[in-house]
Design brief:
heterodimer; A: mainly alpha; ABC transporter involved in vitamin B12 uptake, BtuC; 12 helices; 0% strand; B: mainly alpha
């Protein structure tokens, strides 16, 4: 379970979980969950296009996820961000449908791009993934303070002169970078589940941003590790375990928060 | 005429069914979409389509008619989202995202358990991108009936919905049960989206829900006019899309037709972008358009 090809799986999945925990935390905090769904899924169109032209899948994913981030940011200037995201997203998928209809033998690869292929990571793929992952983390560290401020307290950030639109664009671009790295490995759908479930659970457990971010990473790691072990034993897809565990962690966090906020009130009522 | 309509266009059975069903779906989606966009629930609208398709693969697995799987998962997901807090603006995206994430996990499992990858890949593909030309005529009456139920529900709720979307406080003060109205709308949205997803795929379903409504809300001043404009835009896009899809049969490079979803999506997004040109001229208009008022409300702290 921990040898040979599986070692690659563990290393890659751990890297992906760290990225997903950090990016997911900001996505949940900023209310950009839709973008977190749209960019990985829409990037799929780029992979299809790259397959058609015989280019590297990474290149296709990178071009389309960056185009998606730019599209969402541009349309958000004059429309609500959920509408901007929806329109950019359907356009990307529409182009993806066109690419797929042009190439005949793409179906199998499409399945793995949507649902991932984490058990088939080769040693050659591990290094670029770690490189991309470190680049994402470096980008987040560089813009950590303004990003945190503009996500948690948008009004304060605006008053201090943090440019909201530029922060939004920067965040979406890092999301695009993270996406092009993770989608070939874990799949577009799993990446989304892994970003949202743990981050939402962490947010319901604590209101302190730094702690919530750390918790989000920890929960993402635990989710992925349990998921890989369970998937290895049962042969069921990893996506299933990650999706369901994420939701369970969220419900658990909500339940804990309800109990914690309910208990003092009850004591006060008795006193 | 032959340059526009390839020979045999109107004589083709699948084309006729596609045109009829496409029209019903486009009108329903457009009207429901106007409220979806006004209420800022585009993400929920898209997620419900994805989740409904999960139900479809589940139904496929246990051998039930896929349509019921779509409907059951769509309605169930709407109920879940409502329970865990979609009614509050701040928690809305997260509630939607968590439910969507869990459903996508289930989708992976259902497709895996559907054993043969080769066939399920095809199935997952049709589910995602849809194919309007492969409808079975026998399911059409049920589909149309459910679409009408969703449409009538939304129209009956229209006044209170609008009030509770634009200013929940005033609505509550006037005795509108804001949460119940929101839940009823979410249910109608789930039904209409599940239907359009089963027929035209999740991508096109989202495009028809959000695109025409967003375009109409930029152009029209009143909700009624917005709904009518949205319906017209949606119907036009799907008709043109079907005509182009049919015509493209002999186009390069593959020689087997371009997907209708590509044409419809391109037309809808293109139409939306065209409204930007019009707005450029009227920048000095003192009256604040609907959508911007709403955007400001969305940005202000809840």
């Amino acid at each position: 379970m921990f040898t040979g090809v599986m070692a690659n799986t563990w290393i890659t999945a751990t890297m992906v979980a760290v990225i997903a925990g950090v990016m997911g935390f900001f996505a949940v905090l900023r209310g950009s969950t839709f973008a977190a769904h749209a960019i990985p899924n829409g990037a799929f169109a780029g992979a299809a296009g790259a397959g058609l032209l015989g280019l590297n899948v990474f290149a296709g994913l990178a071009v389309f996820s960056v185009a998606g981030a730019l599209g969402i940011a541009a349309l958000s200037r004059r429309a609500r961000s959920d509408v901007a995201t929806a329109l950019t997203f359907v356009m990307m998928l529409g182009i993806g449908a066109l690419f797929v209809s042009w190439s005949s033998q793409y179906a199998q690869e499409a399945y793995s791009l949507l649902f991932g292929e984490v058990f088939g990571v080769s040693t050659g793929e591990v290094l670029p993934i770690i490189g991309f992952g470190l680049a994402c983390i470096a980008a987040i560290i560089v813009m950590f303070r303004p990003l945190m401020l503009s996500s948690a307290l948008p009004e304060v950030a605006a008053a201090r002169g943090v440019p909201a639109r530029r922060m939004d664009l920067a965040f979406l671009l890092v999301m695009a970078l993270a996406t092009s790295m993770t989608v070939p490995v874990v799949g577009a759908l799993l990446m989304f589940s892994l970003m949202i479930g743990p981050a939402a659970a962490a947010r319901s457990l604590t209101a302190r941003p730094g702690l919530a971010m750390a918790l989000s990473v920890v929960i993402a790691l635990v989710t992925v590790w349990i998921g890989i072990a369970a998937s290895y034993q049962s042969n069921w897809p990893l996506g299933f375990f990650v999706g369901v565990l994420g939701a369970l962690f969220y419900l658990g966090g909500k339940g804990y928060a309800a109990v914690r906020s309910g208990a003092p009130a009850g004591q006060r009522a008795r006193a | 005429m032959h340059y526009v309509f390839e020979p045999g266009f109107f004589a083709s059975g699948p084309v006729r069914v596609a045109l009829a069903v496409g029209t019903v779906i486009a009108v329903t989606s457009a009207v429901v979409g106007v409220f979806t966009v006004t209420r800022g629930q585009s993400f929920a609208g898209h997620s419900l389509a994805d989740i409904a398709t999960t139900g479809g693969s589940g139904a496929f697995l246990i051998g039930v008619n896929q349509f019921w799987g779509y409907l059951a998962f769509g309605a169930g997901a709407a109920a879940f989202m409502e329970m865990i807090g979609i009614q509050r603006r701040r928690g809305r995206d997260v509630a939607t995202g968590v439910v969507l994430g869990a459903a996508l996990g289930l989708a992976a499992l259902f497709l895996y358990l559907g054993t043969q990858y080769s066939t399920t890949t095809g199935a997952s593909f049709t589910i995602l991108f849809g194919s309007i030309f492969v409808l079975t005529p026998s399911t059409v009456p049920v589909l149309i009936a459910s679409a009408l139920v969703a449409l009538v529900t939304v129209l009956a709720l229209a006044r209170v919905l609008l009030l509770s979307s634009l200013s929940p406080d005033i609505a509550a003060a006037r005795g509108v049960p804001v949460r119940a109205v929101g839940a009823a709308f979410l249910m109608a949205l789930a039904v209409s989206v599940a239907l359009s997803a089963v027929i035209i795929g999740a991508v096109l379903s989202t495009a028809l829900l959000i695109g025409p409504a967003a375009t109409a809300l930029r152009l029209a001043r009143s909700p009624v006019r917005a709904a009518i404009t949205a319906a017209a835009v949606g119907v036009l896009a799907i008709w043109l899309g079907i005509v182009l899809g049919y015509d493209s049969y002999y186009w390069p490079p593959a020689g087997r037709g371009w997907p209708v979803s590509f044409f419809v999506v391109t037309l809808i997004v293109g139409g939306y972008l065209v409204t930007y040109l019009r707005r450029g001229e009227r920048r000095a208009d003192p009256q604040t358009p609907q959508e911007n008022v709403d955007a400001e409300q969305a940005c202000s702290p809840a």
